Amino acid sequence: MQHPPDTLHARKRRKARAMIVSAAFQLFAEHGFDNVTVASIAERAEVGRTTFFRYFGDKQQVLFADDDAEVDRMCAYVREKATQPIGDDLHTAVGLLREANAATRPHAALSPAHSAVLVRLLAESTELRSRYLLTQHQRAVRLAGALVEAGTPENVAVLAAHTAMACELTAMRLSETPEAFGPRLDEAHLLLRDIGRQAAS
């Protein structure tokens, strides 16, 4: 698939967006989420409020700004790797989503420093945890759709997507640092396999 040319305008837009994200995370790290305003983010990024709202609907959205792109990559991975219909094998469907997560995580937009700030803010703010849960639910809906396109029955696809979501939420809850997220996620998936073996025995 051909990508559109990388124009000067596109580069300027990416730069402005990146400056807003960087400024927001700096301020959130310094003052917490509730004490930071859109105006202060715009001022730190050296842009106007109008420019801020060109890219983000509110300050919460800055924290989850790249979720859509990450889910796009995961869905593309599922469609590309599922060369044969998955069928009703829940273990295979969950495993494919785990692979998609691992394959796309190195391309995540958030730096380790920004991820650390996000983990801290989620621990501190009920409002942000609610927004995070909403983004996770939306991700599960889209991933279930990708699994259905890959030949998975809808009931298995929905359960697989929400099971994968539960593993991610567990890893997020138990991770004290961003670096711990991957190992914690592996632990959650290992526990699932143990449950499957126990049920089969």
Question: Features of this protein?
Answer:
76% helix; Arc Repressor Mutant, subunit A; mainly alpha
Describe the fold and architecture.
This protein has 201 residues and is mainly alpha-helical. It folds into two domains: 8-62, Orthogonal Bundle (Arc Repressor Mutant, subunit A); 64-200. It is 76% helix and 0% strand. The longest helix is centred in the first third of the chain and has 24 residues, at 8-31. The chain starts with 7 loop residues before the first helix and ends with a helix.
Q: Report the helical percentage.
A: over 70%
Distinct helical segment count: 10
Q: Give helix and strand order, one letter per element, not per position.
A: HHHHHHHHHH
N/C terminus separation:
47 Å
| Overall average pLDDT | 85
Overall number of strands: 0
* General form: globular
**Given the helix and strand composition, which structural class is it?**
mainly alpha
Proportion of strand residues: under 5%
Query: What is the makeup of the main sheet?
Result: none
Tally of structural domains: 2
Low-confidence sequence ranges = none
Q: Assembly state here?
A: single chain
Rounded Rg: 19 Å
Pfam families: TetR_N
Organism: Streptomonospora nanhaiensis
Protein name: TetR family transcriptional regulator
Keywords: DNA-binding, Transcription, Transcription regulation
